[in-house]
Design goal:
single chain; EC 1.3.1.76; Sirohaem_synthase_central; 199 residues; five-stranded parallel beta sheet; alpha/beta; precorrin-2 dehydrogenase; 3 domains; Rossmann fold
């Protein structure tokens, strides 16, 4: 497996089957900025408002325009979705048969722009979940603030520090754990100003 983060903003994600698994995939795709089409004949699904819900049984045409597909229906339907997606050259994930698709999804922890992903490549989803839970406890919301500060300071360093080796040294020093401890103790404004004073 090759780990990758996809930018789905402005892309269409098609989810076939809107049950518990499909609705989770639809929410994740919406959160990633994708347009989402869910194909499921049941009218009473729990889907985000942004989702286009097609109240029909699956047909190949439902994949039209999709950049990514999640097959979350029955095994039989999912197998057909995989075939149809491959014929269209579209990446597909099959909930009932992960090996048949093109990708699997890791267990994920998000803290702002920080994304931590854990995968056992399907060997033990339970272990991946437990590692994710451990990471959730260790990497709290303060990391999101630290990443925001680092992004701001990085832009300023790149714009104002001409020497490349000095830029690299500064940016590396700002990623030191001591800054996280200082952020927890003194707050974002103090940390941002102290970083700026370093060059």
């Amino acid at each position: 497996m090759f780990p990758i983060l996809l930018d789905l903003r402005g892309k269409l994600v098609c989810v076939i089957g809107g049950g518990a698994v499909g609705s989770r995939k639809a929410r994740a795709a919406v959160d990633a900025g994708a347009g989402v089409r869910v194909v499921d004949p049941r009218p009473d699904l729990s889907l985000p408002n942004q989702v286009i819900h097609i109240l029909e049984l699956y047909r190949t045409e439902h994949l039209e325009g999709a950049a990514l597909v999640f097959a979350c229906a029955t095994s039989e339907v999912n197998a057909q979705v995989v075939v149809d997606a491959h014929l269209r050259g579209v990446w597909v994930n099959a909930a009932t048969s992960p090996d048949a698709g093109d990708f699997t999804l890791p267990a994920v922890v998000r803290r702002g722009a920080l994304t931590l992903a854990v995968s056992t490549e399907g060997a033990s989803p339970a272990l991946a979940r437990r590692i994710r839970e451990k990471l959730e406890a260790e990497y709290d919301e303060v990391f999101a603030e630290w990443v925001r500060i680092l992004a701001d300071v990085r832009a300023e360093v790149l714009a104002t520090v001409a020497d490349e080796s000095r830029r690299r040294a500064l940016l590396d020093s700002f990623a030191d754990w001591s800054w996280l401890a200082r952020l927890r103790a003194e707050g974002a404004d103090v940390v941002r100003n102290a970083m700026r004073a370093g060059w």
